[in-house]
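User: Please fill in residues for this 310-position structure.
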C-alpha cells in the first residue's frame, strides 16, 4: 500500500503542519488505520465482522468523538439570560392507603443564551483485502479550507485507535467498495416490538440513574401509542437516537434517548433522512419541527399529526 511516509502516533495533534507537509498543496489524501483486533471495530460502533464499505459515525469514547457526534455549545455571556428547560425528574411515593403515585416535574433554570457549534460528523469506512482490515476517512485536502476538518479527523483517529497514517486517496492495493451507511438498524417488524425497543434503550441509557431511565422509556411508550410503521435504532455515534417512521402521515420522529434532548420531526421519505449527518439533523433549516421534552410535549406532537391529517 502506498503511504505518504507519515505515521502519526500520539495522544493529540495541535499543529497539523508538522504532519501533512508530505502531501502536495491542494492534493487529496485519506487517513487510515489498520485494524489489529476486533475490539477496535466494536469500540467505534461496528460489529467484529463488518461488511466492506460499511460507514458509521463513530461511537462516543472521549471528548473528540463527543464533539464529532454532538457538537458543542458556546455560552453567550454578552446577551441577557433566559429561562431554559434542563431536565425532567420523576419521583414516587405511597399514601397512607397503600396507593402508589408517580409524578414528573420539569426543571428550568435561568441560563446564558448559547450558540451551537455544529458537530463535524466525520464518518469512517471499513475496507479490506486478503491481508488487511482498514478503517479509512473520507477524502481530505491539504488546503486552508480543509485545515480544521483534517486536524479534527486526525485527532478522532488518535482517540479511537491511538495512531493513524496519511495515505493516498486510492489506498492503492485496496479495491474501494460502494459505501453503505451503517448508522441505523431496522428493528424486526411485528405486533409486539417493545422488547427490542426496551433492550436498546437499556443499553443506551446504562449510565443513567433508574429514575432518568424510567422517563426515557416513558417517552418511547408514548411514541409507540401513535402507532409507527417502522422503528430504527441508531448505531455508533447515533446510538442515542431512535427513529419512528409513520408512513401514512409522512412523518419521521427522531427521538433522543438522552433525557435532556428533544424530538426532531421530519416530513417525507425516511431514506434520505437516514443518510443525514448528525450536524444536518441538528440544523433548524432541515427538520420540520423541534419539540423539547418539557411538559406538554406529547400534546405538541399530537397536534403535528392532526395538522398533517387535515
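Assistant: Residues filled in for all 310 positions:
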Amino acid at each position: 500500500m502506498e503511504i505518504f511516509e507519515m505515521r502519526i502516533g500520539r495522544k493529540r495533534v495541535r499543529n497539523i503542519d508538522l504532519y501533512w507537509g508530505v502531501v502536495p498543496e491542494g492534493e487529496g489524501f485519506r487517513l487510515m488505520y489498520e485494524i489489529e483486533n476486533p475490539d477496535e471495530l466494536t469500540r467505534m460502533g461496528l460489529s467484529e465482522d463488518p461488511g466492506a464499505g460499511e460507514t458509521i459515525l463513530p461511537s462516543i469514547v472521549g471528548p473528540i468523538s463527543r464533539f464529532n457526534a454532538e457538537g458543542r455549545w458556546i455560552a453567550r455571556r454578552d446577551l441577557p439570560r433566559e429561562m431554559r428547560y434542563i431536565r425532567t425528574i420523576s419521583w414516587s411515593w405511597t399514601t397512607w392507603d397503600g396507593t402508589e403515585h408517580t409524578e414528573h416535574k420539569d426543571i428550568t433554570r435561568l441560563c446564558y443564551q448559547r450558540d451551537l457549534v455544529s458537530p463535524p460528523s466525520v464518518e469512517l469506512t471499513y475496507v479490506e483485502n486478503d491481508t488487511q482490515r482498514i478503517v479509512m476517512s473520507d477524502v481530505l485536502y491539504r488546503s486552508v479550507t480543509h485545515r480544521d476538518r483534517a486536524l479534527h479527523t486526525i485527532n478522532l483517529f488518535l482517540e479511537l485507535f491511538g495512531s493513524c497514517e496519511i495515505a493516498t486517496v486510492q489506498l492503492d492495493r485496496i479495491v474501494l467498495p460502494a459505501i453503505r451507511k451503517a448508522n441505523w438498524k431496522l428493528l424486526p417488524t411485528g405486533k409486539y416490538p417493545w422488547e427490542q425497543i426496551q433492550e436498546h434503550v437499556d443499553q443506551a441509557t446504562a449510565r443513567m440513574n433508574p429514575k432518568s431511565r424510567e422517563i426515557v422509556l416513558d417517552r418511547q411508550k408514548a411514541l409507540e401509542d401513535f402507532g409507527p410503521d417502522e422503528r430504527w435504532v441508531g448505531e455508533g455515534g447515533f446510538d442515542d437516537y431512535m427513529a419512528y417512521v409513520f408512513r401514512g402521515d409522512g412523518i419521521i420522529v427522531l427521538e433522543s434517548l438522552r433525557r435532556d434532548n428533544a424530538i426532531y420531526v421530519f416530513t417525507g421519505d425516511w431514506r434520505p433522512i437516514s443518510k443525514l449527518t448528525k450536524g444536518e439533523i441538528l440544523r433548524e433549516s432541515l427538520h420540520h419541527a423541534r419539540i423539547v421534552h418539557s411538559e406538554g410535549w406529547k400534546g405538541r406532537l399530537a397536534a403535528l399529526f392532526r395538522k398533517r391529517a387535515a
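For context: The chain has a mean pLDDT of 84.
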